[in-house]
Amino acid sequence: SQITTLINHKDKPKRSDKTLQAIQRVGQAVNLAVARFVTVGETIANENHELKEEMSVACIEARRAGETIAQLTDVASLDHPESDSHITIFTDKTGVVKAARLLLSSVTKVLVLADRIVIKQIITSRNKVLATMEQLEKVSSFQEFVQIFSQFGNEMVEFAHLTGDRQNDLKDEKKKARMAASRAVLEKCTMMLLTASKTCLRHPDCESARINKDGVFHRMRLALEQVIEIVTDSRPNGENEMAPISIYSGIKEFKNKVEGLRENLYFLSKENLSTMLEVILEHTEDFTDSAYTSHEHREHILELSKQAKMELEQLVSVWMQAQNQKTKDLMEDLEVAILKTCQCMNELKREVHSAATSLAADLLKYHTDHMVLKALKITGVEGNLEAVAEYTCKLSEQKEQLVEMCRLLRHVSGTEPLEITCMHAEDTFQVTGPQIVSAAETLALHPSSKIAKENLEVFCEAWESQLSDMSMLLREINDVFEGRRGEKRVYLSLPRPGKHNANLKPLKPVKLDTEEQAKIAKLGLELHLLTSDVDSETEKWEDQENEIVQRGQGMSSMAYSMYLFTRGEGLLKTTQDLFHQAEIFATEGTKLASALHAVSDQVHDDDKPLLLLEAEKLISLCKQLQITAKASVQGKSATFAKVDACILKTRNVMTLLCQLLPLCCKLLRKNKAGSGCLKPAALWREDRIRAGPNAHAPERRAEMFGIKSLENHVTNMTFLESK
Prior knowledge:
723 residues, mainly alpha, Four Helix Bundle (Hemerythrin (Met), subunit A), 76% helix, globular, actin filament binding
């Protein structure tokens, strides 16, 4: 942005001292930023000898270009720069353009090389994990297993840190969702691998125990492979990733093509449109052929499918006539045909959405008591093989229902990340079902085995956890469909101590009771409305990549998850989860205030005090929230008072954010449309540069999904007690 400012400055005959000083400040800022950037690049080069030469060359080029820009913008001391022998931006603008090109090119090279190093680190870490997994598969004694698993745990923690950073850096939401799914599998499977391996060591001749353990190892290897595919942007054997098209995305694309006929009658063929509709209607067969779709929904879907064909035929007829003769009447008929076709597709979308979500709601409600899992645990401990076989059949039926539910939900999920989450859920049910069966069979064969009982508990908890996540996913799908949350999602990578604590005996979650939820309901609702207001304000910004917009959206998502907590829903399961979330929210607010300070350097002097005043208010409110969230309390009433205070202070921050976002947007627009007077953007913050290439901010570590629980796998293992 600094360079763009320099290149686009207007060559005016009269240049004020203010303009000259501004140009010089921008040039110096560029040179200083480049110098710091290059220092980081050189440090990386010294630590990675295989890329040292390439990195060093790119760094030298970048430094040279930065110095050239600083020299060409050294104009503040010149009263008449054009008559001076000193070459400046005014006498040689092409020199600045050349230096800018060289700078951008060399900086890009440094970034690409640094990225290659990060990818190599992740691949190396994966290879270590795989090698240790092979050793774990072959061990034959508890003592050897303890030693190797301890090493494996440390390697998994390192891998989780590296992939967590990578997930945060990914711009593609689809890849980010796939990475989150793979990392979630690895986190849960680490605990499964522990208990399944211990069971196999205790009962080496048990076939069901071996099958159980092999299933965990296989799933972990697939997840590790998927992480590498995402990181390297490649697929095995060079094959392309072909995700199945959902009904929702198919209808969206079809409607775009149909509505495009208003602008251009010739940009696609009628065969193209017909084929698109055929594909959509083929996918509706997933609903009409499903044994779990109600008769009413099936009839409506078939009826709307038939109507869609008729509407398209009418549209094509009018469209072909309009191509030959553009009369007013024909164009009006075309508009009516377009509207009717789109309306029919909307009704079809609404019908399949209703069919999928009503089925999901019914199934989740029906299976919420986990009766089959409870029965398997009881009959397993009794050693009743016949009863275990009976309940495993019931679990298989339940699995088929839930898998079908995930497939239908994917069609109506509305966004690619949610589609991926549905596919991940489907895969989890497909794999976990048979693993529960093998664990139950092992327990039935060895009913007095504590480790076999513990192993079955772990797999049952994974099943229950996925069912719980499905309730949240269903709510998100409904929110997207009804336009409440747009394309945004609640953070799925939040720490969830109550749910993901990896101790062998997890703490019982502390939730708000019904009376407490009723007391806090009004405050929660206010918070919900404020998240909608903030989302609305961020959508008005032209630059969606702006740091203020992204942090505002992140804070809105966090506040939304806190609102869900007040209803006893969502990913924040315990009061401790809420307090931890409030701390992260406050930290994010402080970062947003820093971004506002940076923006204040770019706006006109008259507007600067107002923006700085609002930024200081935000910092003050965030500090208050942080103090409240960190305060230790004891007793039920004191805990509820702290919850109430955290929600109240979060609401205050969101209220201020609703005022700040439009103000900042307005000032930036005003500055952009103003006199063209240049102001330099803020310099890189000292602390980020000093951190160096391998440093990780503590708050990012804390926010990483599953890191703490993986570390707990290493520190809280108690293998020998099971002997």
